[in-house]
Amino acid sequence: MLNGRAAMYVEMLIALVVVAAFAGFALARTVRIIPQSTAGVVERLGRYHRTLEPGLSLVVPFIDRIRNLVDLREQVVAFPPQPVSTADHLVVSVDTVVYYQVTDAKAATYEVSGVLSAVEQLTVVTLRNMIGGMSLDDALGSRERIGAELRGALSETAARWGIKVNRIELKSIDPPASIQESMERRMRADRDSQSSVAAAEAHKRAAILTAEGENQAAVLRARGEAEAVVLRAQAEAEAHSMRAKGQAEAIAMVFKAVHDGKPDRALLAYQYLQTLPEIAKGDSNTVWIVPSEIGRLLEGIGGLLGPEREEEPEPRRRPRTTRKPAADGTP
Fold first, then answer.
1. Contact assessment for residue 70 and residue 38, using Cβ atoms and an 8 Å cutoff
2. What is the pLDDT of residues 171-214, one digit of tens each?
3. pTM higher than the cut 0.85
4. Measuring CA to CA, how many Å separate 75 from each of 117, 166, 271?
């Protein structure tokens, strides 16, 4: 009896454990947690049912299942270099980087098989069509334009797959080795030519600046010399004026003194005799004139100093000139 009850309890315990395990498993299949920036595509009985948002969500176990968890963050994919032929029949290697983002998890799951592979193949085909109509020089100088046009061409097709192409960058466009060597030689020649032109321009500008500086210096020197001549002339004129003014004042004072003193003819003759040596001192005074009246004055002075004698009339003489010996001894 006890053994039967024990067996029944064991069976009930096993059943409870099974039920609890099944309930736990069902609960685990019912409660789903979706991470941030992720979308869950739910299928019910094999058909699309809904898209789960980030957070806690409930599904029907054994009926609903999550087909795919789609990453909604921006993806950066660098595709391997692709050989592309240009319009001038040169094969270049193009390295591209694509920035894209899934905006519709349902379309990315059901509209295309393999989102990354589809984006890569679409990029390669569009890139070959674009560069195939351009020359090598145009392709090398238009990387930004090619990237912008490539993005516009991809956006229309990728939108049907629930994908947004944000940006496409061309990391490099590498021509063949022989073309690269030729381009390097041409670039070196261009740089050498530009360097020579720059050196010639610098030399020309330096020569022009030197000539302008010398011209300005000559003008300034001439202007300074002219101003100096003017200033010297003004100084000399002022000095002459001052000397003439002083002489005039001295003559006026002498005249006034003579006039106030009321001198007689004898005194004037005596003063004239004292002045003659001063007149003869000048180096340029080689000839000076003695008036005929000097004789009469001297006779008057002699009469004052000696006994008077009878005056005899003397014929009137013409003024005579006395020549002073020159400095070199010639008469």
1. yes
2. 888 787 777 676 667 777 777 788 788 888 888 888 898 888 88
3. no
4. 13, 10, 128
